[in-house]
Design goal:
alpha+beta, Nuclear Transport Factor 2, Chain: A, 4-stranded antiparallel β-sheet, 4 strands, 36% helix, 24% strand
Amino acid sequence: MNGFKWGIAGLLALVFSSVSLAQDRLISPGAGTAERKAILDGVRPAVELRLQGEVQFVVNSIQAYKGWAMVNAQPQRKDGRRFDAAKLFGKNESMMMDGLTVTALLQRRGGNWVLVEHKIGATDVWWMGYCDEKPRRIPAEVLGCPN
């Protein structure tokens, strides 16, 4: 094998080993990364359906580990305008919400991030119920479970 082919083989090995390492530790995919886009694309259809329009997320946090991800984000319209919670949910219900904050739990299945559960405007930490599962399927690191 000539030097160029060895170089390509080495580069591919490095890429695949770094992907493997990323799955073995808690990551927070940064803005502009393919992983972040894939995770948010897993949340987007359900949120767009409920908010009745195209959504762009302003991310507060994303954690991913061992095929699971947790998202906390603010939805806004693609042009940056806010959605009107009172129009979408009614005045009384919208007053009982934490704005339109989206919290979502996803699982990687077959190379795609699939939405497991999500809430819009939740005022509690609904995902902590998964911390009590015996045996727990979802890593504590993703959920933020207390020790």
